């Protein structure tokens, strides 16, 4: 019966079968060491002479476990038989068993699936899978229901960012920029508390280390809130849970990347400052008048938060009305909205929403939009919608910042940017 590489340790003298990929071959003449890799890790195989096999071939091996202090985990397998299940061609497009930093992002993405054979690169997506589980786990514990809304929409929700048009039989629809309007209506449906994990599409032309044209949005929407403060409380709870779980279960991945997560104590002290305060802090620190929060400002504000509050995150709220989408609840000339910055990057936007029909119609017009185009959404607010709000965390940005990846593209399995639609 097959055992995993990680389970070899301690089973001295046992006959085992392991299956996996050939990671490294070291032929010393008279003895040949091969590292075999499976999903759990690696084990050293010992042969009397070099077998006829290539790097990355898939094999099935039988042999006896032996203790050997010089072997990577203190144990190795003396091979009796090896079967090649799938022979790899010798011209590997990238080196799998080297340091991923030496490969370069374009080579990694051009050869995405082969690049994932490298355990360090693959670990990004094991962590991402866990982040999704921790996010859902916390929200379910708070009585949130998971929804899946359509990604084909009739009108945009996030003014200022482009839409991808899709031919839909005899008319045009768009790829969803966000599940925004659906998640709000689900609060009004009586669900009260919902979350969604799904793809979001942005037809933005920039090519930056923080933008994708398709990303995964972790969306939350909650009814019966008073203000954006309730939402920042909820997001703090989510982050404490996710970071706590990562620290508990994903230490080996953090170690591979030389990364760490904020402590539970630090997360109790995330500062909440207004957009005006943020600009004042930045003007003072940068020695020039700052009018808006740009990437340089986001980095500097996180430095400030770390110096003053001992935490690498900062909430910025009370953005001006014109800077936020039409659904955002106004508060004088400002709004009940916020962003969360983490290690120099915006990872979340959120707000209380307008839940009063007349106010919503008026605001839609104020933004130069046509209420008729949003009729289905608007109708919901005519018939009883609670005060509510929510936010969205970008999965790839979050992963990027947890592990310290230099580009967001490294945190997307199959990133889509202006040039890349394959693999
Ligand atoms: P916003 O447009 O700010 O807000 O997006 C929320 C979060 O999603 C991520 N994100 C992106 N990640 C990668 N590439 C992109 N092009 C990209 N655009 C956004 C970021 C960002 O903070 N409907 C609102 C959310 C809400 O109010 O509930 C919205 O979509 O991490």
From TrEMBL:
Homodimer. One of its GO terms (molecular function) is RNA binding. Aspartyl-tRNA synthetase with relaxed tRNA specificity since it is able to aspartylate not only its cognate tRNA(Asp) but also tRNA(Asn). Reaction proceeds in two steps: L-aspartate is first activated by ATP to form Asp-AMP and then transferred to the acceptor end of tRNA(Asp/Asn). One of its GO terms (cellular component) is cytosol. Residues 125-423 form the Aminoacyl-transfer RNA synthetases class-II family profile domain. One of its GO terms (biological process) is aspartyl-tRNA aminoacylation. ATP binds at residues 202-204, 210-212, 346, 394-397. HAMAP family: Asp_tRNA_synth_type2. The lineage of its organism: Bacteria, Pseudomonadati, Spirochaetota, Spirochaetia, Spirochaetales. Residues 180-183 are annotated as: Aspartate. Belongs to the class-II aminoacyl-tRNA synthetase family. Type 2 subfamily. It catalyses: tRNA(Asx) + L-aspartate + ATP = L-aspartyl-tRNA(Asx) + AMP + diphosphate. Keywords: Aminoacyl-tRNA synthetase, ATP-binding, Cytoplasm, Ligase, Nucleotide-binding, Protein biosynthesis. It holds the Pfam family tRNA_anti-codon. Its EC number is 6.1.1.23. This is Aspartate--tRNA(Asp/Asn) ligase. The record marks 72 as: Important for tRNA non-discrimination. L-aspartate binds at residues 158, 202, 349, 353.
